[in-house]
Write a structure and sequence with these properties.
The chain has 82 residues and is mainly alpha-helical. It has one domain. Helix content is 60%, strand content 0%. It contains 4 helices and no strands. Helix 1 crosses helix 2, helix 1 packs antiparallel against helix 4 and helix 2 crosses helix 4. The longest helix has 17 residues. The chain is globular. It starts with a helix and ends with a helix. The model has no long low-confidence stretch (mean pLDDT 90).
């Protein structure tokens, strides 16, 4: 399910011509970052690699996608572990 959600988010980034450079700033390298959000950002960067449709529009909601989807992954993992 998370792969589908991330794919739809990537398509949304392209449709809105969003700036995705904020996805690169999540991993500070200090080990204190949200691992799920960093993972989502990495997956989105792979999905959007080479895309000519992403643009320069800074949309706050798009910059929140990795954190929101990261929390979603955490919840799904917790549901499946019970």
């Amino acid at each position: 399910l998370s792969q589908i959600v991330d794919s739809v988010a990537a398509l949304s980034c392209e449709a809105t011509k969003s700036d995705i450079t904020s996805f690169s700033s999540l991993d500070s390298g200090d080990g204190f970052g949200n691992k799920d959000a960093i993972s989502v950002a990495g997956d989105l960067k792979v999905l959007l690699n080479g895309s000519k449709a992403v643009g320069k529009l800074e949309i706050e909601e798009v910059s929140k996608i990795p954190r929101i989807h990261g929390k979603f992954r955490d919840v799904v993992r917790s549901v499946h572990s019970d």
